[in-house]
Amino acid sequence: MRLVMLMTACVMALSGCSGLGVGVPSTPGAFIVAPQGRTFEPMDTLDPRNAMVYIYRPITRWGYEEVQAPTLFLNSTQLFGLKAGAYEWLELNAGTYDFYARRPLSVLYLKTIFDSKLKVEGGKDYYFRYSETRPLDLTELVANPEDYLQDGPLQQVPPAIALREIADLRLDEPGLYYGNQQEKTPRWAPFYTYSEGDAVQEGDKAADATDKPGLLSRTRSWFASLF
Q: Which residue has the higher pLDDT, 26 or 108?
């Protein structure tokens, strides 16, 4: 009975944090549900001044034994879980973000797995590889490894390497546009996400278009994979 009461209190406490974009862990590991989406498909940004970030996780035995997938956050906002054999994408305004992952246990978040400053420039693509058991030795692959973000199991990798590894991985959850909260109306031709004359701003809130109008989420690839 005490355990039930404790778990209930934890759920209520986490629900109270929803204003910060933090919720209950919701992504089961590949041991429970393997990635179901389509294999890798490059995405265009809604706005040419935005950056596209891909995060992928190669297939490993360790990953396929997970019951819950690690959850990624940006500026304290919960994004998505990352299963073994899956990739996710994130469209960002140019800027610098707090980017980190935490390991869940039931309805709680425990250990922080990595915690980095993610700096992106508009018009560029970035690839990040997550592997707890099979990291790459970038000193053997690139001439300037110091220019690539590395933090624990997270490694920024060159496109040539990433595209080989990501080709057969699957999009498991909808990709997200994380942008300027002041943008309230979608712009369809072309997909500009800044007002005319506005400076490029750092993102301040993740959102799915199905939940918050005006903050656009590119989900067509993920939904198409369901049919």
A: 108
